[in-house]
Each structure stands twice: as C-alpha cells, then as structure tokens.
C-alpha cells in the first residue's frame, strides 16, 4: 500500500465526503497553499521539497552531528549523576537530547536554546492542555519565522541556511518555516519516545541489557530490534485511496482511509521467528518502523545515531541502572499516536 500510487498521503484532498469534516473546512486545497509539510503531499510536489531536504542530510553533516550528539548525551548524563543517584529520565535525558539535536541541525543560536526547548517541551508534550499546546505551537511558528529571517540575512553552516541558499528554485519563507516545523515535529517526539521506551524495555529485559553491557558492539543491532519490537508509531502511517482499490481481498471505495497497524506488521511471524521476544542479537531484517515508499523517514540515519549514542552512553555511564519504581507504576502513553512513557524514574549505583 505504501508504494502504491493509487494511495495518497494528502488526506485533506482525497478524503471520502462521508468522513468527519475537518474543523477548518474552508481551507484551500493543499496545492494552492504555500506550505512545506510534505509528509502530507504526493509527488511531484512532495518530490521537490523532499529532494531539497535530502540534499542537506549530507554524510559530512551527519558525521559532525554524531560528535555533537555524543557531547549532548554525555553532558546530560553527567548532570544527572552530579545531582544524585535518581532521576526521571524523560525530562532529564529523553526529551532534551532530540530537541538539542534539532537545534544543531537548524542552527538555533545557543542563547535561544532554552526558549526553544521550553516551547518544544510544552508544544509537543502530551500532558500539556490543548490551550497550552496551541499557544506553544504558535510561539514555535513565530520562532521559526524569526530563525528563517535570521538565516536569510546571516547564513551559517547549518541545514536551514543550506535550504535557503542552495535550493533552486528557492523555497518561500512559508515553506521554509513549515519544513523546519516538520523536522521538529517528526524528529523530536519520535526519538524522545524511542529513548524513553527503549530504556524501559531494556530495563524490563535484564538478560538483554546484560548482553549489551557485555558486548557494546551489539548496539546497532539492539537499536534495530527495539525499533521493530516497540513500533512506537502505533497508529501512525495512513493513506487515502484515490480510486476504488481491492487490497488484500477487500474492496475499498475511493476516499477510504487505510491505517497500517505497524506493531502487527513488525511482529509478523512469517518474517520473524518468535516475534514477541526482544532479542538484541536477532539478525537485522527490514522492518516498518520508519515507514516505506516515497515517505520513508527522512531522518532515519539521524534517529539511529541518536538512539545508538543515547542508549549506549546511558548503559556505559550509569552502572546498575534500574527502575526506581515498580514497572507497573511507569505511566505509558497508550492513547497517543506515538507510544512511549510519560516519565521513567530510574536509579543507578
Ligand atoms: C517520516 C518514523 C525520527 C524526519 C517518517 C515516517 C515514519 C517515521 C514511520 C513515515 C510517515 C508516513 O509514511 O506517513 C520515525 C521514527 C523516528 C523518526 C520511529 C525515531 C526513532 C526522525 C528524525 C527526523 C525525522 C530524527 C528528522 C530530524 C522525518 C520526515 C518525514 C518522516 C521529514 C517525512 C518524510 C516524507 O514525507 O517524505 N518518520 N522518524 N524523523 N520523518 Fe521520521
């Protein structure tokens, strides 16, 4: 379905007229808007925007980011250790790490990072009220507009400056703001929840954690296995049929929405032996945690870097890392599009 051109990511345009109406019914069709949220676009619009961005995810930039990710991870773990032997890993580590990595990627000034992080934490936090979220998102929008203006007049060696100055034909300010916001929303909550839930999963499987401690070279494998096993985008990937389609023997009318149950796919016994078991030594096979087809996650290389370094540093720098409360008291985000933990009280030796 994800590689079938009869399905569209532009749900507003192709939605079945009988589906519930969106709140902003008067919105113009996407093609007439100057926006850049290309995850909800189809080719060729999607292709142009995505291509301008893939040109910025260079090997050199990823390599540089890798050393910054290590610095950020180590800084936060050392701050936790300096403060005692207990912490809530979500605010202390899982949320700030991806937020600061996006700051690096977009080239947010050091002086503005506290403000950026605060707005991100509220705007993307499932526990904030809808009003708090809406206000923080409006502020983030204004922040990105300011950032685009600053990079236009004062380019630096960051992705946003590259997008502004290297893209031909150039992107509009509205597109640039949307692309920056897309990177933030797509790259922050996902990675933060993988870090929190991934740590929880390892703590709940002490044999797997012990295997990783004994052989840190298993970390790449472990990251891939955690992505498969946890499938945090539990209801995340959906498309709309643009014409009548028969899919898996089911006749779908034009406008029907199909949602992929990623956790089911990633635990398909036809593809994995013993799929409900977390096994960090499992040979790597393709999974659907980053999607598939033209919209396959653009930041997957960066996400893997953050998870490998983030989880690796936690394990090596916090000997005896364990839960500080019984596992059943860890609050999970069951009802959210992205699965995860709201907080993760941990302690170490
Ligand atoms: C798209 C998962 C991290 C940027 C996607 C999609 C999935 C996904 C499943 C496909 C959505 C669809 O087909 O509708 C994840 C997971 C992550 C992660 C599980 C972390 C573990 C990141 C990061 C970034 C990022 C770190 C960038 C900083 C994007 C973008 C898209 C995307 C821009 C849209 C691509 C397109 O439409 O062409 N992600 N992602 N993601 N992701 Fe990620």
How would you describe what is shown here?
There is one protein chain. The protein has about 350 residues and is mainly alpha-helical. The protein has one domain: Cytochrome p450. It has 13 helices and eight strands. The radius of gyration is 21 Å and the shape is globular. The site of protoporphyrin IX containing FE has 24 residues, from helix 9 and helix 13.
Question: How are the secondary structure elements laid out?
Answer:
Layout: E1 7-8, H1 11-14, H2 45-54, H3 59-83, E2 86-88, H4 89-94, H5 96-106, H6 113-123, H7 130-153, H8 159-166, H9 173-204, H10 206-214, H11 219-230, E3 237-241, E4 245-247, E5 250-252, E6 257-260, H12 262-265, H13 300-317, E7 322-323, E8 345-347
Antiparallel strand pairs: 1-3, 2-8, 3-6, 4-5, 7-8
Helix pairs in contact: 3-5, 3-13, 5-6, 5-9, 6-7, 7-9, 9-11, 9-13, 11-13
The structure holds protoporphyrin IX containing FE.
In short:
Keywords: Heme, Iron, Metal-binding, Monooxygenase, Oxidoreductase. It contains 13 helices and 8 strands. It has a single domain, classed as Cytochrome P450 (Cytochrome p450), CATH 1.10.630.10.
Hetero groups: protoporphyrin IX containing FE
Mean pLDDT: 91
The number of domains is 1
Number of helices in the DSSP assignment: 13
CATH class: Mainly Alpha
Which strand-content bin applies to the residues?
5-15%
Pfam families: p450 (PF00067)
Family: Belongs to the cytochrome P450 family.
Organism: Nonomuraea zeae
InterPro entries: Cyt_P450, Cyt_P450_B, Cyt_P450_CS, Cyt_P450_sf
């Amino acid at each position: 379905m994800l590689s079938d051109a009869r399905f569209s990511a532009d749900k507003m345009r192709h939605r079945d007229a009988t589906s519930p109406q969106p709140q902003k019914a008067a919105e113009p069709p996407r093609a007439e808007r100057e926006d850049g949220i290309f995850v909800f676009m189809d080719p060729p619009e999607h292709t142009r925007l995505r291509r301008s961005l893939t040109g910025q995810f260079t090997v050199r930039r990823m390599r540089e980011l890798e050393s910054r990710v290590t610095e950020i991870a180590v800084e936060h773990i050392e701050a936790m250790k300096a403060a005692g032997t207990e912490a809530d890993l979500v605010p202390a580590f899982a949320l700030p790490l991806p937020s600061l990595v996006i700051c690096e990627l977009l080239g947010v000034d050091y002086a503005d990072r506290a403000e950026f992080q605060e707005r991100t934490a509220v705007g993307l936090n499932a526990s904030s009220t809808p009003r708090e979220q809406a206000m923080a998102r409006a502020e983030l929008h204004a922040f990105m507009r300011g950032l685009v203006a600053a990079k236009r007049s004062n380019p630096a060696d960051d992705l946003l400056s590259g997008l502004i100055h290297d893209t031909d034909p150039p992107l509009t300010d509205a597109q640039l703001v949307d692309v920056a916001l897309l990177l933030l929303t797509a790259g922050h909550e996902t990675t933060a929840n993988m870090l929190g839930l991934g740590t929880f999963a390892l703590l709940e499987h002490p044999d797997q954690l012990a295997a990783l401690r004994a052989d840190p070279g298993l970390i790449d494998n472990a990251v891939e296995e955690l992505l498969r096993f946890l499938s945090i985008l539990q209801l995340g990937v959906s498309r709309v049929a643009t014409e009548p389609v028969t899919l898996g023997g089911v006749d779908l009318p034009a406008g029907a929405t199909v949602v992929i149950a990623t956790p089911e796919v990633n635990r398909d016994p036809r593809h994995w032996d013993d799929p409900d078991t977390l096994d960090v030594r499992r040979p790597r096979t393709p999974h659907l945690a980053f999607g598939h087809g033209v919209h396959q996650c653009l930041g997957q290389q960066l996400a893997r870097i953050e998870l490998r370094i983030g989880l690796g540093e936690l394990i090596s720098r916090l000997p005896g890392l364990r839960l500080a409360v019984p596992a059943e008291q860890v609050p999970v985000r069951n009802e959210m599009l992205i699965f995860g933990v709201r907080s993760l009280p941990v302690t170490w030796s």
